[in-house]
Specification:
single chain, FAD/NAD(P)-binding domain, 4 domains, five-stranded parallel β-sheet, 32 strands, 30% helix, disordered C terminus
Length: 560
């Protein structure tokens, strides 16, 4: 059997390597049009930033090492230009010229290309992308003499690139067309990422796009934005997304979706029984919303390559829909996502409930505890739909637990009962994951009613807002309308609260949502129409960063 693989890196090389392990005697040829067949593309920004000093450290395998270890015929600098499905051949252009190669099974792993905005100046030498090892090496070399840069796009790679350039001493501006950095995050969590960027000297511009790049004096370029701003810099790095490299598949008559991603079945097979496709160029199904489209992540690509090889030999397990689990380091914090975000669920028209927690990554009495800001989405019946987190320590662990829980189909009761490793340096007896489960259990049981940022204006006009933080916290900033009564004084002030409410609902908040939950339980059982602000003032201020707060101690006239 001859297996031809088009494209290397994660998907293609996983397919070739798995195929060899399944059949020692198969002839396996890998065509890669670039100079590197197997490299760590997720490490590219860290090479630019200097964390990974050597270019060679990014190269996982070479044609020679793959020939030696796996008996693969790997041909770099060789492009497949057409597929003849009837003849089961591919035409390739390489160092030796044009060649027609037959196949019994064909695996397409063409990847994706960086999207270039259709604006003037994208072809200037100061403008670059970050998709290949050569891109990273060239940028790392140019950074040494540069003093300033603009990064277009604040997704995962854009954030990593902005950090890398800033760590190398450049003045960096980060421009994002969406109204927030890291669009997959909920806005209130993205705000925490933006604050970390600005604290480390990165200028952040959101809700704006570049309209052009033009030459300036001394070898610099000027970037113009649609908000009228202009910046003259040494470098521009474009990171505004990728597009599937599906031209070869389309010309061969293979089925693609409306985003030009190659359509495959649950064994990676295309509409041609002898052709499989994997990686960034294919369409996958979201496990939560059912949405179909490309998800350019290394983990799924590796599994897809493995599955394609197994399908060729008739031993594949059907693919699971993807969760889109992803993580990024931004200076001193980590942001991570898995499953469906509130925005994704809104787009899918799915009913859901959101809960926020701001618990510590390990026991508070053990030195070094840090807040883990978590958000989880649940179906009304308690089924987990997604999770996101931002924090300095422990975010990766919690998101991995939530991703595993999503794959298992867990709900609130399961999260509440998870037995997670606990010792003071590592966690708490009630882990933040458990707490999310407890919160949803309370919600389902009717013991927890919540309100959030979208309800603030209504509450200010129609409810009594009750601030149950300490006097010091209240003085640092509070809603002007709020009645201040610390949570441990609620029972002694029920008549006062009842008089102030005057028949109106009571909407309670504290700093993170726990003390106000205790107050809410008292008020609920005393007959008040009470609700607890989900995530407290921490979530309120990142959800509504322009919200004006009053400072100073409570005035008796305002609280009487």
């Amino acid at each position: 059997m001859r297996i031809v693989v088009v494209g290397g890196v994660a998907g293609g090389m996983s397919a070739a390597a798995r195929a060899r392990r399944l059949d020692e005697h198969a002839e396996i040829i890998v065509f890669e049009k670039g100079p590197d067949v197997s490299f760590a593309n997720c490490g590219l920004p860290y090479h630019v930033g200097g964390d990974i000093e050597s270019r060679d450290s990014l190269l996982l395998h070479t044609p020679a090492s793959l020939k030696s270890s796996l008996g693969l015929d790997v041909r770099i600098g060789t492009e497949v230009v057409s597929i003849d499905r009837a003849a089961k051949t591919v035409t390739v252009n390489g160092p030796a010229g044009t060649e027609v190669v037959s196949y019994d099974a064909l695996v397409l792993s063409p990847g994706a290309s960086a999207f270039t905005p259709p604006i003037p100046g994208m072809d200037l030498p100061q403008v670059t992308h970050l998709r290949t090892v050569d891109d990273a090496t060239a940028l790392a070399e140019r950074v040494g003499s540069a003093k300033s840069a603009v990064v277009l796009g604040a997704g995962f790679i854009g954030l990593e690139t902005a950090e890398a350039l800033r760590e190398r001493g450049l003045e960096v501006a980060l421009v994002e067309m969406a109204p927030q950095v890291l669009p997959p995050l909920a806005p209130e969590l993205a705000r925490l990422v933006e604050l970390e960027l600005t604290a480390n000297g990165v200028g952040v511009v959101t809700g704006s796009a570049a309209t052009g790049v033009e030459p300036a004096a001394d070898g610099q370029v000027t970037v113009s934005l649609d908000n009228g701003a202009r910046a003259t810099v040494d470098l521009v790095v474009v990171s505004v997304g990728v597009r599937p490299n599906s031209k070869l598949a389309i010309e061969a008559g293979l089925t693609v979706d409306d985003r030009s991603a190659i359509v495959v079945d649950d064994e990676q097979r295309t509409n041609d029984a002898s052709i499989w496709a994997v990686g960034d160029a294919i369409a996958v199904t979201n496990a939560i919303t059912g949405a179909v489209g490309p998800v350019p992540l290394a983990g799924p690509a590796n599994r897809q390559g493995r599955r394609a090889a197994e399908s060729i030999f008739g031993v594949a397990k059907p693919a699971k829909p993807v969760l889109g689990t992803a993580i990024v380091k931004v200076f001193g914090i980590t942001a991570a996502v898995t499953g469906a975000s509130p925005r994704m669920l809104d787009m899918a028209g799915t009913d859901y409930v959101v809960h926020h927690t701001h618990h510590l990554n390990h026991a508070g009495y053990y030195p070094g505890a840090q807040q883990v800001h978590l958000l989880a989405t649940f179906a009304p019946d308690g089924t987990l739909l997604g999770a996101q987190g931002v924090g300095r320590e422990g975010v990766d662990k919690r998101i991995d637990v939530m991703a595993t829980s999503l794959r298992a189909g867990f709900g609130a009761d399961d999260l509440a009962e998870l037995e997670l490793a606990y010792a003071p340096p590592y966690g708490s007896a009630k882990d933040p994951v458990n707490m999310l489960g407890f919160m949803m259990q309370n919600y389902i049981a009717g013991n927890l009613k919540t309100w959030g940022a979208k309800d603030v204006e209504w509450a200010r006009e129609n409810a009594l807002i009750l601030d149950v933080r300490s006097a010091g916290e209240y003085a640092m900033g509070h809603l002007p309308e709020a009645l201040h009564i610390p949570h441990d004084e609620i029972r002694a002030n029920l008549d006062r609260i009842r008089e102030a409410a005057d028949g109106r609902p009571v909407r309670v908040h504290c700093a993170s949502g726990f003390r106000s939950y205790l107050a809410h339980r008292i008020l609920d059982q005393e007959g008040f129409d009470s609700a607890n602000f989900d995530g407290g003032m921490l979530t309120l201020q990142t959800s509504l960063p322009g919200l004006e707060l009053e400072t100073g101690a409570a005035r008796e006239a305002a609280t009487a």
